[in-house]
Amino acid sequence: MMTTRADLLAARCRPRTAALDAGAAAQLQALLPDWTIDHGRLTRSFAFKNYHRTMAFVNALAYVSHTEDHHPEMTVTYNTCVVRYDTHSAHGLTDNDFICAAKADALYQQAAVPA
Ligand SMILES: C[C@H](O)[C@H](O)[C@H]1CNC2=NC(N)=NC(=O)C2=N1
């Protein structure tokens, strides 16, 4: 059972075919206050100082996506990256989406200079 942000950060994605029900998804979302559920997808917009920093984040998150085999949609502009997660194989949200969202937050917090 994942009840803290630290649980999400320590967890690894696993193949999932069953979506969480709305209550379970809301419980996990409460651990990630910067994320919303929009059109069934876990969504956050990240802001940066410039394109270089935006792309550094995009590449770092791509690496996490590779290691977790769980891939967000990323919409990139000069100074923003909107990240959207859902689980195609489950046709909805699974714990994998929340695990990766927590890891994206951690990458963003790791930036040497704040956005
Ligand atoms: C075989 C492999 O596990 C699947 O194609 C993975 C890859 N990345 C994925 N990413 C996302 N976001 N949802 C998935 O269901 C998914 N499935």
Automatic annotation (TrEMBL):
Keywords: Lyase. Its EC number is 4.2.1.96. InterPro entries: PCD_sf, Pterin-4-alpha-carb_dehyd, Pterin_deHydtase. The keyword Transcription does not apply. It catalyses: (4aS,6R)-4a-hydroxy-L-erythro-5,6,7,8-tetrahydrobiopterin = (6R)-L-erythro-6,7-dihydrobiopterin + H2O. The keyword Lyase applies. It is an enzyme of class 4 (lyase). Belongs to the pterin-4-alpha-carbinolamine dehydratase family. HAMAP family: Pterin_4_alpha. This is Putative pterin-4-alpha-carbinolamine dehydratase. It comes from Duganella dendranthematis.
